[in-house]
Amino acid sequence: MRIAYAITGVAALFVLSLSVRAENPTPYAGMRIIDTDTPIAEYQEKLLGAIQANKMGIVARACADCGAKAVLDKEIPKNRVIMIFHPRFAVRMLEASVAAGIEAPLRLYLTEQDDGTAKLTYRLPSHIFGAYEVDALDKLGEDLDGVVARIVAEAGK
């Protein structure tokens, strides 16, 4: 009987712990989160300008709130995934590792906070490409870290 109570108690604690578990905002090593004081629309324009000024291409954009509004007629906080890369980096990446091609483009995730300001989340390219343990990809990741850091710094001005 005591064993049954013990098992029931452990199971209850486990279930309770699941309901109070907080989301991990950075599930990957090398994740960067930048909270801004800038409204999301204004920050997005600055970010797009900084991407262009740093000679990176915008490969694609995704907009979940646009889809929610258009398809479901539902309002959700604004968010964008802006995917960036450039052929000069793609050639280096693919010369070093065709398998690493899955990592391009790099993603910048822009989300609207409760107060209307923007938050930017991204993974450091050095962490993305470092997983391959290829010297040329390590160098590429370091170079791209610098490019993304300049983009972020310029967008924050």
Rg computed from alpha carbons, rounded to a whole number of angstroms: 20 Å
Given helix and strand content, the structural type is alpha+beta
Helix content: 40-55%
Shape: globular
Number of strands: 5
Strand ordering within the main sheet? 1-5-4-3-2
CATH superfamily: TT1751-like domain
The average pLDDT score comes to 89
Distance between the termini: 66 Å
Give the helices and strands as they follow along the chain. Answer: HEHEHEHEEHH
The largest β sheet comes out as:
5 strands, antiparallel
The number of domains: 1
What is the CATH-assigned architecture?
2-Layer Sandwich
Give the low-pLDDT segments: 4-20
Write down the CATH class: Alpha Beta
Share of residues in strands? 15-25%
Kindly report the CATH topology: TATA-Binding Protein
> DSSP helix count?
6
- Oligomeric state of this protein: single chain
Brief digest:
This protein has helices at residues 2-19, 40-53, 64-72, 87-96, 125-130, 135-155; strands spanning 31-39, 57-62, 79-85, 106-112, 117-123.
Compile the SSE list and pairings.
Elements: H1 2-19, E1 31-39, H2 40-53, E2 57-62, H3 64-72, E3 79-85, H4 87-96, E4 106-112, E5 117-123, H5 125-130, H6 135-155
Antiparallel strand pairs: 1-5, 2-3, 3-4, 4-5
Helix pairs in contact: 2-6, 4-6
Description:
It is a single chain. The protein has 157 residues and is of the alpha+beta class. It has one domain: TATA-Binding Protein, CATH 3.30.310.70. 50% of the residues lie in helices and 23% in strands. The chain is built from 6 helices and 5 strands; from the N terminus they run αβαβαβαββαα. It has helices at 2-19, 40-53, 64-72, 87-96, 125-130, 135-155, and strands at 31-39, 57-62, 79-85, 106-112, 117-123. It has a 5-stranded antiparallel sheet. α2 (40-53) packs across α6 and α4 (87-96) runs antiparallel to α6 (135-155). The longest helix has 21 residues, at 135-155. The N and C termini lie far apart (66 Å). Residues 4-20 have low confidence and may be disordered.
